[in-house]
Amino acid sequence: MSVLSALMRHSAGRIGLVIIVIFTIAAILGLLGLTPHDPLAQDRLARLQPPGGAYLMGTDLFGRDILSRLMVGIGQSFVVALLSVGLATLVGTILGLTAAWFGGLWDGVAMRTMDVLLAFPAILLALLIVAILEAGMTTSIIAIAVVYTPIFTRVARGPALSLKTRSFVDAARTFGSSRLYILSRHLLGNLVAPLTVQVTLALAWALLTEAALSFLGLGTQPPNPSLGLMLSDSRNLMEMAPWMLIFPAAVIMLAVLGFNLLGDALRDIADPKSRRALT
Amino acid sequence: MTLLSVRDLRVGFGKPGHETEVVHGVDLDVAAGETLAIVGESGSGKSVTAMSINRLVDYGGGRILGGAILLDGTIDIATAPEAALTGLRGREIGMIFQEPMTSLNPVLKVGTQIGEIFAKRHGLSGRAVRTAAIEALERVRIPDAARRLDQAPHQMSGGMLQRIMIAMALAGKPRLMIADEPTTALDVTTQAQILALLAEMQDETGMGLIFITHDIGVVAGIADRVAVMQKGHIVESGPLDDIIDRPQHPYTRHLLEAVPHFRWGSAARQDTVRRPETRSAQALSVEDLSVRFPVGGGFLRQAQGYVHAVDDISFDLLPGETLGIVGESGSGKSTTARAILDLVQPTGGRVSGADGHAVQMVFQNPNASLNPRMDVRTLLSEPIIAAGRRVDASALDRMRMLLHKVDLPEDSLTRYPHEFSGGQRQRICIARALMPEPKTLVLDEAVSALDVSVQARVLDLLVDLQRDFDLAYLFVSHDMAVVERIAHRIAVIYAGRIVEMGDARSVLSDPQHPYTQKLISAVPTIERRRVEFALDTEEVPSTLRPLGWQAPPQHWQDHGPDHRFVTGSGA
Fold first, then answer.
1. Is the ipTM of this complex over 0.85?
2. Which of A182, B27, B184, B338 has a Cα at 20 to 30 A from B136?
3. Which residues contact B483 (CB under 8 A, 6 or more apart)?
4. Cross-chain Cβ contact B386/A186 below 8 Å
5. B365 CB within 8 Å of a chain A CB
6. In chain A, what are the domain boundaries?
């Protein structure tokens, strides 16, 4: 609760929170099928309708409602972003914690692997994984998770290395506390703040990567709507029907902006505290 | 002649217009060649006052709200523009900080950092800079100065670095030196050298010295006049002898009485439990304990040598008895404690009586040894959970009983560490260590991080707990006055080996080993005023040994019924 009220006092955080809340509501409505029109229904009489009238944001080449398709598209993108970042956080944190705790060979193997992954540009690595597996939502989730795992590994490992030498960890050892207890209560407990910030920022990147994959035809498959696909569809009709481009592009931009503002605000809020906790 | 005169100085922190005042109208005077000691506990405003004199407080978020700081009766530092201050700092007013390790840039050679001063301040260049730097180091008695210039800070000991800091501060030839707890992080023997050095420099150059400390024993050794600070006020000030012998203000009297003063063994505990019939009922016994750390080795490479941190240490502890372990930092006293608890892997020897939860430890810094994200109940539960037991009604009863024993309110259970003071946090640590009903407590510098008056109360608490629970204590400390209060027996560790051990009174009043004698003669006490500490630049021998090195056998000699020491070359 205190984090929420602190976010509302933070001017950038307030804007980010409002954007994300609005998009989340739209996404939930879209996923539940509560859209103004059927996102897949084609209205042959209303092809390429400009915004206004029955279709608030206009229609596409097949006469499908852009607003409805956007709502479902945001839902798809958010699900992919949340699941992939969730997976990356889980794997990355476990790798980072164990690398810091055990050190030695395991640390070397884990961190050098992460370095290799980091050396690839994000989109190239994702493309590689999609090429190996089969294009689709699950593959997108796995690909994006692999791309962002190294970041979480690093975010967890650094502070864990310094927490490991703190006397409360020594104290826990003298009681004979189990390794699991020390790792989960003493190390992970103190990593919550930096990880939360990183999750929020990674959501923005994941959203962009998902859109890029779909744009290239490697993410969500047609006729299912997705933000990247909608952009791709609009390419050749840009001059005739600019609304097909403007609305999905604006949604992607605003969502990324929203997560970034939220992440920055969370960092501002968490920073003095996490600094005190870690030094 | 008055060099510095501070009148009605008020300093605050916070946003302009909404400052919280922390120094409320302080008056100070320092004459050339004089030493003024400012004494107070943490939060008394002594450091803020000092930082205001050269306006460094501006960089710490503080602001001078009123008053005057007159240098030579003409320049008012309180209102001077920043440009004028840059010329004053270093040239007229030098400063030494508490932590030499963090005051030097770790990636630059020492010579580069000293040279910078001569290049910038005195316009020297090339070879002249180096010659001047060597001279500066020789003045603070650094042996082999030319070689030291090419070393990085981490290659030197704390005492050496503090001497370098002093050399750097002196390089500007300041007329006033501000020393903020310059010896607090150092061993007593090193402290004595730093004090001697400062006194000598003062005689040579006639500079005024403001010496900030919490240690009244140090004050007695160095000060001409004393100002006692509490909560941002100077509550009493005057010549050294008046303050120590005839304190007027209750807080000064409290400081003098509460602080453990070193009394050469006469204040040692007399409630010994060591009698012929009790000797077999040991709580803890350590035989030939050794800890070595490999050096220069690595992946697929053999170690080039070993640091013999602890070599063949043996002692035993009876229930209800305290063994004090004293020595300088790096002597191996903390490693001994940690090896008993398996926090470092012993390379050899036997420890009996440390099975299960029979030995528990209390660490130096209570802030670092409590997880800030756990409430007291969770903290106290940890040893129970670790033992595989449930946190049930009887465990909660024990928590409440222990909180009561360590004088903490019962509602502490739902509170978090940051809601407690430093002394209270250490009480939580002690309660936590007692949760699994140990027989022995290892106290590693357990009161060193606390304010002096809090220190005395925690020591009293420890003595009470020892009687109530028949606990054996292994009390590791560099502070002889504190050890004297709590130890029945004392072991002196030097370069990883015990060189003298025995009854506390006998060891402290009649030390036999030369190192023990040196250690005790360096302890500052209020009886020894304006001491001429002998300048001694001898470094502690390195414990880094080549492969296959065996410690030479020690030859012990008895001195009284329970007091023996090492003689001859084995020392």
1. no
2. B184
3. B324, B326, B475, B477, B490, B504
4. no
5. yes
6. 3-278
